[in-house]
């Protein structure tokens, strides 16, 4: 089963993807790495930053890996490159 | 004394207008506090021999505010006597020498507010989704805080 999530791009990931946000249809249950792979399929230029990014799913940080995500329609998934606030 | 009028408050703002040290420090002043401690992060004009023209900041605003609220909550747990906390971060273009971030904390005695301010800026750099782009003469660079736990150490 799939659902529509809101994907947000920031900083370098927004430059590589060429956009700041979009709606994507993704499997409701998916590992964080699989979710990344789905996003890279849509935006191949993102592959170069794979080792540097994490996700924020419903505003909680998630590393790219085996963690199983249970997504709801309308969930916010953000691509988070290394931060540099302050 | 009646403390009900001075309930501890957190003041969190992300904005593109120039930050004012007077404004932010006045937010945390309290008649019950003998100390206001401040951190101001300002824009440097150089990085590794390159001239920096200005900085640009962007943020995942809603999550940044939530993460800063968590920092304030942690501060109050670690230093219960802290009265008010203000964290103001500028977004967009920040010219050289202007402030990107101002953190102000008040407490009855100075040790707690000094320690809390340091904790706030260190934790902000490790956990708040804000990004800085350094603009040089011929190029630019997305910066990465060393505090960021998922960043590559090799550049």
TrEMBL record, chain A:
Gene3D superfamilies linked to this entry: 3.10.20.30
Biological process (GO), any one: Mo-molybdopterin cofactor biosynthetic process
Pathway: Cofactor biosynthesis; molybdopterin biosynthesis
Superkingdom in the source lineage: Eukaryota
Signal peptide coordinates: none
Maturation and modification: C-terminal thiocarboxylation occurs in 2 steps, it is first acyl-adenylated (-COAMP) via the hesA/moeB/thiF part of MOCS3, then thiocarboxylated (-COSH) via the rhodanese domain of MOCS3.
A Pfam family it matches: ThiS
Known partners and oligomeric status: Heterotetramer; composed of 2 small (MOCS2A) and 2 large (MOCS2B) subunits.
Function: Acts as a sulfur carrier required for molybdopterin biosynthesis. Component of the molybdopterin synthase complex that catalyzes the conversion of precursor Z into molybdopterin by mediating the incorporation of 2 sulfur atoms into precursor Z to generate a dithiolene group. In the complex, serves as sulfur donor by being thiocarboxylated (-COSH) at its C-terminus by MOCS3. After interaction with MOCS2B, the sulfur is then transferred to precursor Z to form molybdopterin.
Family assignment from sequence similarity: Belongs to the MoaD family. MOCS2A subfamily.
Protein name: Molybdopterin synthase sulfur carrier subunit
Source organism (scientific name): Lepidothrix coronata (blue-crowned manakin)
Name of the encoding gene: MOCS2
From TrEMBL, chain B:
Binding site for substrate: 109-110, 125, 132-134
One Pfam family linked to the record: MoaE
Domain of life: Eukaryota
Entry EC no(s): 2.8.1.12
GO CC annotation terms, alphabetical: molybdopterin synthase complex
Pathway(s) the chain acts in: Cofactor biosynthesis; molybdopterin biosynthesis
Keywords, alphabetical: Cytoplasm, Molybdenum cofactor biosynthesis, Transferase
GO molecular function: molybdopterin synthase activity
GO BP, sorted A to Z: Mo-molybdopterin cofactor biosynthetic process
Catalytic reactions of this protein: 2 [molybdopterin-synthase sulfur-carrier protein]-C-terminal-Gly-aminoethanethioate + cyclic pyranopterin phosphate + H2O = molybdopterin + 2 [molybdopterin-synthase sulfur-carrier protein]-C-terminal Gly-Gly + 2 H(+)
Family stated for the protein in its record: Belongs to the MoaE family. MOCS2B subfamily.
More info: This protein is produced by a bicistronic gene which also produces the large subunit (MOCS2A).
Function: Catalytic subunit of the molybdopterin synthase complex, a complex that catalyzes the conversion of precursor Z into molybdopterin. Acts by mediating the incorporation of 2 sulfur atoms from thiocarboxylated MOCS2A into precursor Z to generate a dithiolene group.
Protein name per its UniProtKB record: Molybdopterin synthase catalytic subunit
Organism of origin: Lepidothrix coronata (blue-crowned manakin)
Lineage, uppermost ranks: Eukaryota, Metazoa, Chordata, Craniata, Vertebrata
């Amino acid at each position: 089963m799939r659902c529509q999530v809101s994907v947000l791009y920031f900083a370098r990931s927004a430059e590589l993807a060429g956009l700041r946000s979009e709606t994507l249809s993704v499997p409701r249950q998916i590992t964080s790495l699989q979710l990344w792979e789905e996003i890279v399929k849509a935006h191949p230029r993102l592959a170069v930053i794979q080792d540097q990014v994490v996700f924020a799913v419903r505003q909680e940080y998630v590393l790219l890996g085996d963690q199983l995500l249970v997504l709801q329609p309308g969930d916010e998934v953000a691509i988070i490159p290394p931060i540099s606030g302050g | 004394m009646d403390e009900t009028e001075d309930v501890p408050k957190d003041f969190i703002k992300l904005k593109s207008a120039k930050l004012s040290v007077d404004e932010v420090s006045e937010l945390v002043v309290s008649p019950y506090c003998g100390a206001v401690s401040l951190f101001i992060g300002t824009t440097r004009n150089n990085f590794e021999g390159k001239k920096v023209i200005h900085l640009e900041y962007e943020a995942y605003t809603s999550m940044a505010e939530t993460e800063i609220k968590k920092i304030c909550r942690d501060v109050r747990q670690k230093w219960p006597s802290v009265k008010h906390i203000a964290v103001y971060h500028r977004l967009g273009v920040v010219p050289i020498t202007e402030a990107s971030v101002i953190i102000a904390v008040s407490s009855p005695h100075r040790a707690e507010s000094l320690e809390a301010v340091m904790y706030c800026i260190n934790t902000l750099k490790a956990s708040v989704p804000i990004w800085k782009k350094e603009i040089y003469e011929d190029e630019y660079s997305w910066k990465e805080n060393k505090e960021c736990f998922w960043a590559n150490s090799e550049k």
